Each structure stands twice: as C-alpha cells, then as structure tokens.
C-alpha cells in the first residue's frame, strides 16, 4: 500500500515530475492528452510550472526546446486518443466504471462536444478531464481526420504556447516565484475544482 501511495504521489506531483527532466514531462503530457486512464495526471499547472522552472534555470533546455517537445507530446497524445475512439470507441462506451475510467467523464465530454462542435477540440485543451476525453469522443463520432488534425494542432499550440511561455517569462523576471510553487498549484487546482463542480451541477440540471 505504501508503494502505491508513493507512486501516486510521484505521478501527480508536478514539481517531482519537472525535476525528473523533460522526457518525463513529455510522457506525462502525452498520456494526459489521450489515454483515458490518465485523466488524473497534472496538465495545466504542469505546463505552467515547466515554464517557470525553465525560466529560472532549473530546467536547462531553452524555451524553444520546451515548447517543441511538449507541443509534440500534446498533439501525438491527442491523436492516439482520437484513433482509440475511432477504432475502439464502442467497447469503451460499454466499459464498466473502474478506478481509472468513469462513464460520467465520457458523458459530460459528449455534452461539451455537442455544445461547441468542432471548436470543442480547441477549448477543451484548457479544461482538465475534458481535455483527455474530447479526442476519444471525436474519434467515436468519426470526425474527419483532416479537420481533427487541424484543430488538434491549433489547440495544442495555443495550450502549450500560452502556459509554458507565460510561466517561462514569469520565472525569468521573477525567479523568487519558484519558492511559491505550492500556491501556483493550489490556484490551478482551484480552477480545476470549480470547472468540475460547475460541469457536475449542469449535468444534474
């Protein structure tokens, strides 16, 4: 049990992930963007803090290297999610709930997808959980692959570009901010919690 708790902490602690290096960061981003069982992994604040750690020099890679690696991981991860939905969507929809899969996440994403159409692929990049399931739902609904690829690239570019770049320049100009990482995480978790609760209340209505 202790080993499971340690593993869970390592997978969800963004500072631990970032200090492990860019390869680990890109693997986490890849998984969180398209593997249905990885919806719990950090996303938004992982990108922002990666920028902060890059700007303060903890991560040695230049901004261009961070952006290119994380953008590629986000786009390829979402593409895997799309292909999973396209080829295995029916079995996923009939899958029973488990620790790493909740049918309600797929249902709430479907509602979000119906509301915003194709643009859901861009908007959902900034929404935890929905970000993971939107590519899968796009595959299930058999969205044309060329439309998906375009929106995947646009959404991934905006998500990675805004969060990593803003974090990088903030860390570069205010290096002391690295001492307040936990407050940044709490801020993003607050936004995440608000989003999830708001979506749940809408579904109840």
UniProtKB/TrEMBL annotation:
Keywords: Cell membrane, Membrane, Transmembrane, Transmembrane helix. Its main location: membrane. Pfam families: VTT_dom (PF09335). It is a multi-pass membrane protein. The chain crosses the membrane at residues 21-43, 63-85, 149-171, 177-201. GO terms for cellular component: plasma membrane. It is found in: Cell membrane. InterPro entries: DedA-like (IPR032818), VTT_dom (IPR032816). The keyword Transferase does not apply. PANTHER family: INNER MEMBRANE PROTEIN DEDA-RELATED, TRANSMEMBRANE PROTEIN. Belongs to the DedA family. This is Uncharacterized protein. It comes from Aquirufa nivalisilvae.
């Amino acid at each position: 049990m202790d080993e499971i708790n340690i593993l869970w902490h390592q997978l969800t602690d963004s500072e631990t992930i970032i200090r492990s290096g860019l390869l680990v960061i890109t693997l986490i981003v890849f998984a969180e963007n398209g593997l249905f069982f990885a919806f719990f992994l950090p996303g938004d604040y992982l990108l922002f803090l990666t920028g902060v750690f890059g700007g303060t020099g903890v991560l040695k890679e230049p901004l261009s290297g961070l952006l290119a690696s994380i953008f590629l991981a986000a786009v390829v991860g979402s593409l895997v999610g799309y292909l999973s939905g396209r080829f295995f969507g029916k079995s996923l929809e009939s899958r029973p709930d488990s620790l790493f899969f909740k049918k309600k996440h797929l249902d709430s994403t479907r509602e979000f997808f119906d509301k915003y159409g194709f643009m859901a692929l861009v908007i959902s990049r900034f929404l935890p959980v929905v970000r993971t399931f939107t590519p899968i739902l796009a595959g299930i609904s058999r969205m044309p692959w060329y439309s998906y690829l375009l929106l995947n690239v646009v959404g991934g570019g905006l998500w990675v570009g805004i969060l990593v770049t803003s974090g990088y320049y903030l860390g570069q100009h205010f290096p002391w901010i690295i001492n307040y990482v936990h407050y940044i995480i709490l801020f993003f978790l607050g936004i995440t919690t608000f989003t999830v609760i708001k979506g749940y209340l809408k579904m109840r209505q």
